[in-house]
């Protein structure tokens, strides 16, 4: 029985780096029938696929949450891959940074280096989670993604949340 397997590369515009695979079977299917089956599955996957948005996000904590210090933060990125800075410049890869109480107007823009200071936390080993020691009160945390040279990928790869440390 012929089998048609469709890998995510065929659906990359809708699914980006998501790993999806669909297998169709057809008894006595000709090449044209296999192609038609693949086209039907492709169209149904595209229609059912959620809207894809590249960028970064805080998995935890949620925006506006009351938290205790140390604040456990978890990060995610869509559209790029997490790699340690020590791996060097590899297109489409980078690592996370968290800015603590850095106003948007003072945040590095696309291609600008992220400073090494107490307000800019670097996770150059490829970490996707960390615990941050923060004083009690309201804080703005900004997650940013940057390349191996700590150069920001810009606003698409930046997200801010507020937390209230008790």
From TrEMBL:
InterPro entries: DUF4399 (IPR025512). Residues 73-166 form the DUF4399 domain. Pfam families: DUF4399. This is DUF4399 domain-containing protein.
